[in-house]
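Revision sheet: structure tokens.
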Amino acid sequence: MTRTIDTTSTERGVETAEKKLAELRSELDELDHKLLDDVRNRIEVCAQIALLKEKHDIPMLQPGRMRFVHERAQNYARAHNLSPEFLRSLYDLIIGEACRVEDLIIDGLGRK
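Predicted:
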């Protein structure tokens, strides 16, 4: 007795999986675009804050605010089953870039 293997259903399954993978990657690309726009918007607000700090001679570094942002991220991580360490590291990068931009703005205005 010769046994045949039905490869049609397997091929359809692979095609379905590949289609779903393409859809999910497209969704991920859209989310990445939004994420990058949100990061850019956050940096732009930080630039406005730097201008205000420069104008009113407010120190750039605000440890209390940094603690608040980190705590909010940690609480969000715990509430949404994400890694608090990951979000802390992410915010360290975001805050570091915000400080770099603020320094550039404050230093640039201070020389004029």
